[in-house]
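User: Let's play a game. I give you a shape written as tokens, and you guess the letters that built it. Ready? Here's round one.
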């Protein structure tokens, strides 16, 4: 006796919030780690070769720790249904030299890796931060500015 094809059971239509979500597949983790390793290597070379001041890498480390913690707290709040950290605040930490920590947090916590609009904004802040750093270092080198803060 032939078996009948499986019947599809109608499912509830997705609610409007679900259908409006802008989710996509995350970028490969290797891409994020490659960008991070490339940045750290280039920054280390520039730090030594151009005798950059100590506060530059220190700023990236401190802001990265703050951004990492903020992403972790936001992921925890998302799981609990508690008040979240705004995307604007997360992006601001990133552009203010915290993007390496944010990038690590995205991979460690698997947080903010699927929402396409956030990813675009995040990578834009990464590019803008790197361009600003490059412009500052280039101008300081060409004009002979002392960036050491006199400390």
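Assistant: Ready! My guess for every position:
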């Amino acid at each position: 006796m032939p078996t009948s094809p499986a019947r599809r059971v109608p499912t509830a239509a997705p609610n409007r919030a679900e259908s409006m979500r802008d989710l996509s597949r995350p970028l490969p983790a290797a891409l994020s780690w490659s960008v991070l390793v490339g940045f750290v290597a280039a920054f280390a070379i520039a730090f030594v070769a151009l005798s950059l001041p100590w506060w530059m890498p220190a700023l990236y480390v401190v802001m990265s720790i703050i951004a990492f913690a903020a992403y972790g707290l936001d992921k925890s709040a998302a799981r609990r249904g508690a008040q979240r950290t705004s995307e604007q605040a997360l992006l601001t930490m990133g552009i203010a030299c915290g993007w390496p920590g944010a990038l690590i947090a995205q991979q460690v916590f698997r947080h903010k890796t699927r929402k396409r609009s956030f990813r675009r904004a995040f990578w834009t802040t990464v590019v803008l931060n790197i361009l600003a750093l490059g412009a500052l270092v280039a101008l300081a080198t060409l004009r002979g500015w002392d960036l050491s803060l006199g400390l």
